[in-house]
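Final report, Chapter 2: Outcomes

The project's central promise was a pipeline that accepts a single protein chain and returns its three-dimensional structure in a standardized token representation, suitable for archiving and comparison. That pipeline is now operational. To close this chapter, we reproduce one record exactly as it appears in the project archive, with the input sequence first and the structure output second.
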Amino acid sequence: MSTQKLQNDKLDIIHWINELDDYAVIAKLKSMMNTSKEEELSLAQKRAIDEALISIDTEILQSHDTVVEQTRLKFPHLFQK
């Protein structure tokens, strides 16, 4: 997307917002403004990432085939065709 197109789109959005009379839409827009640009990871997700990084550093790795098989067993619905 060109810089000019981006600027035009932003101006169109500003104009649209300026004309809004719907409080629900305004509330949603405010909520979007207040959310961080990056989603926060849960503590469990952070721990899982840390564990994965440690296992990489210590070279305790599983083969791709092993991971696929474990995934297939845990989530069989993802492998149905």
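Archive annotation: Residues 3-19 form the longest helix (17 residues).
This record, like all others produced under the grant, will remain available to the consortium after the project formally closes.
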